[in-house]
Amino acid sequence: MMTLYPDEQKMNLIEQMLPPQNAAIPPLSRETGIPKDTLYGWRRQAQRARGIAPTASASGAERWSAKEQFAMVVETAALSEAVRGEYGRQRGRYPEPLQVWRRAGEQANAGQAASRPKTDTADQRFGNWSASCRARKRP
User: Fold this and answer.
1) Which of 48, 99, 115, 119 is most buried (CB neighbours < 10 A)?
2) Cα-Cα-Cα-Cα dihedral of 28, 30, 34, 38, to 10°?
């Protein structure tokens, strides 16, 4: 049998779990005696209903597509730390995943750059040409 909770209590807890408060679910579960799975479900339903992006979880259970991750990294790249924090609070996103995604993108691009064949720059080509000209003996 499913336990029914008063609507007022449910709404109060949902407000605590959503931005800007973003209260952690495990402590709320311990305080209220409501199972964590129930609280996670309420939060997920409220996020969908309000058009809020899923909240990053400490366990990493939520999944963002690579395209969404890239878009969020690009959106926040030029923001100061304080503004990025406000951005995150308004959208229910934590800064830690963004930092991880940014580092992962940087590492991926560094790996691609290392695997590309090295090309000579114009200065290098001129230097090589100049050295070869000096090496030639003039009659």
Assistant:
1) 99
2) 60
